[in-house]
Amino acid sequence: MDLFLITFAALFSVINPLGSVPIFLGLTQGDTKESQKRTALWASVNVFIILVISFFIGKVILNFFGISIDVLRIAGGVVICSSGFGLLSGTFSKKRGVNKKVANDAQQRNDIALTPLAIPMMAGPGSMSLLIAMEQDYQEILNKLIIVTAIFAVAISVFLILRSANYISKILGASGIVAISRIIGFLVLAIGIQYIITSLLILFKI
To answer: Under the phi-then-psi rule, with left for phi > 0, alpha for psi from -120 to 50, and beta for the rest, what region is 68?
Structure first.
């Protein structure tokens, strides 16, 4: 249960689906409720698939490029810190690779559930590197199943939040979403710093 909660909390904080609500509403404006629900469903499915693939195949990619797990943790920690700082400063949307040109192009396509919603907005480098590092830390089959279950729970949360985007936007308003995002941003920043410090201690054997 502890591993499940740790994985869920870390992934949910890094992915921050609440912060995606305004962008989701912007990309699906003019769509019917059924179309928005379908987009939310496929976005969550894509997030789940991308994260699971990252979790199981990431090690192979690292070995292919000769990258050590500790170096990955540092790189992932920097990315996570950058995301956390972006949330705290209110510039996270610019750091998600969704600029005005991308958003305008996305509105003309039918696959926005994959890009830019699933990747890079939610299943980005931060969450991918986090899972690759966890795969190295938890080798037992039971632990891997628990982590996959946590990924599934995060994907369900993504679906429920995006499906309720209109209600969340009305209840919280822009200022409420910003406030929550900045609280999450602080947690994300702390997670990133912890990853960097842990990896440096291992590399220098302090």
So the answer is: beta
Cβ atoms of 45 and 114 within 8 Å: the answer is: no
Domain locations along the chain: 2-203
Tokens of 40: 């939310």
**Integer angstrom CA distances of residue 110 from 11, 43, 97, 98:** 27, 12, 19, 16
- Assess contact for 70 and 203: CB atoms under 8 A: yes
Q: Are 87 and 95 in contact (CB under 8 A)?
A: no
Summarize pLDDT for 150-177 with one digit per residue, the tens.
Answer: 999 999 999 999 999 989 888 888 778 7
User: For 123, which DSSP code?
Assistant: S
Q: At how many degrees (to 10) do helices 2-15 and 165-203 cross?
A: 110
